[in-house]
Amino acid sequence: MAKPKQTKKAAAWSLVIMGAGFAASLPFQGSLVGKMLVGSFEAGLVGGLADWFAVTALFRHPLGIPIPHTALLPKNRDKMTEGLVSAVENNLLNKDSITEKIAGYKAAETILDTLAKELHTDGAKTMIDTLCKRILAGLPVQQIAPLVAREIKSQAGAFDLGPILERASIQMSERGYDVKALDYGLKQAEEWLVKPETIMFLGEAGMKAVSGIQLNGLMQFAMNAFMGYLNEERLGSILQGYLFDRVEDMKREGSALRYKVLDLVRTQTIRLAMSESVQQGLNDWKNSMLDGWNAEETVLNKLTELRDKALAGMEDGQYVDTYALPAIERVLSDLRADEALLTSLNAKIVEGITTLLEKNHSKIGNLVRENVDKMDNASLVSLIEDKVGQDLQWIRINGAVTGFIIGIALTALRIVLE
Question: Following CA atoms 340, 341, 345, 351 in sequence, which dihedral angle do they give, to the nearest 10 degrees?
Answer without folding.
Answer: 40
